[in-house]
Design goal:
The protein is an alpha/beta fold. Helices cover 44% and strands 13% of the residues. The chain has an eight-stranded parallel beta barrel, surrounded by seven helices. α4 runs parallel beside α5. The structure holds 3-methyl-2-oxobutanoic acid.
Length: 276
């Protein structure tokens, strides 16, 4: 049975920690789903870890819809959240609703995520009013990286901390079912978590959040261009892949691959007849 937003909200009430991971393709989504992770985010982080851009800005709606469809095919139980990319919800409420609707209608995902607090709360409310569950995202919001001037810790001054609290409350009141908090000092994230009714999902926001989200490539060690401080590598997949690929390459060159085990036999007389 597919996890619902109500079950996610209940986890906060019961004090049950929530784990969430990104996935961008069918195979990975299937593995994450079978591991029992209840929330899968098709993050626009795919711009970096799948497509090799240096930010999430170039990611388009069509690209996100394409990958979200693949993830939905792989995830049978997890609630799949499609990340609304840059400029698909900022321009007008009408566009925000239409594009959020496209995620649910065309991909089969169950919710969308968008970045911002007070400034997008009215749009969040209108999307939720249409029956589309929304996950908020505050703190370091990567689509505004040029405004921030880099990957900086958010909410460090009294004014910034107070703005972040207002953002979280605005999203809660607008009907978001959960709020991602990115790169926020742990004590502030823990404080905000206690102040809102819906779950907070932290990334670089400490243990006091109701849940945690990570970019899957960061915890598997498959994206090595940049390893964020908030990620723990549970594996070193890039090394394993590199070793396997080098071995394949050298066995093809030396004639050790393929052997009979990877080949298909046939009646030799057919070949002899062909040569007549
Ligand atoms: O795009 C993404 O993967 C995200 C997470 C980092 C929360 O927004």
């Amino acid at each position: 049975m597919r996890i619902t937003i109500n079950q996610i909200k209940e986890m906060k009430q019961k004090g049950e920690k929530i784990s969430m991971l990104t996935a961008y393709d069918y195979v990975t989504a299937k593995i994450v789903d079978e591991a029992g992770v209840p929330l899968i985010l098709v993050g626009d982080s795919l711009g970096m870890v799948v497509l090799g851009y240096d930010s999430t800005i170039p990611v388009t709606l069509e690209v996100m819809l394409h990958h979200t469809k693949a993830v939905v095919r792989g995830a049978k139980n997890a609630l799949v959240v499609g990340d609304m990319p840059f400029m698909t919800y900022q321009i007008s409420t009408e566009e925000a609703i239409r594009n959020a609707g496209r995620f649910l209608q065309e991909t089969g995902c169950q919710a969308v995520k968008l970045e911002g607090g007070v400034t997008v709360a009215d749009k969040v409310k209108k999307i939720v009013d249409c029956g589309i569950p929304v996950m908020g995202h505050i703190g370091l919001t990567p689509q505004s990286i040029n405004q921030f001037g880099g990957h900086k810790i958010q909410g460090k001054t009294p004014e910034a901390a107070s703005r972040l609290l207002e953002d979280a409350i605005a999203l809660d009141q607008a009907g978001a079912f959960a709020v991602v908090m990115e790169t926020v000092p742990a004590p502030l994230a823990a404080f905000i978590t206690k102040k809102i009714s819906v779950p907070t999902i932290g990334i670089g926001a400490g243990i006091g959040c109701d849940g945690q989200v990570q970019v899957i490539n960061d915890i598997l060690g498959s994206y090595t261009d940049f390893v964020p401080k908030h990620a723990r590598q549970y594996a070193k997949i890039a090394g394993i892949m590199s070793e396997a690929i080098s071995q394949y390459h050298s066995e093809v060159k030396s004639g050790k691959f393929p052997t009979e085990a990877q080949s298909f036999p046939m009646d030799e007389s057919i070949i002899k007849n062909l040569d007549k």
